[in-house]
Design brief:
The chain has one helix and two strands. A two-stranded parallel sheet has the order 1-2. Helix 1 links the parallel strand 1 and strand 2.
Amino acid sequence: MAVETTKWGIIYCPKAGITNKRKRWEKIQKVLDERGVAYELSS
């Protein structure tokens, strides 16, 4: 498998004390998208 050096791997732990986990991820995703960061989310 080839490694893409321009793509970020995101580890997101929704159980880490944040009350609204979905909203928090949406904010993170928005910032990444606005900045043109290529990423892959695994769950």
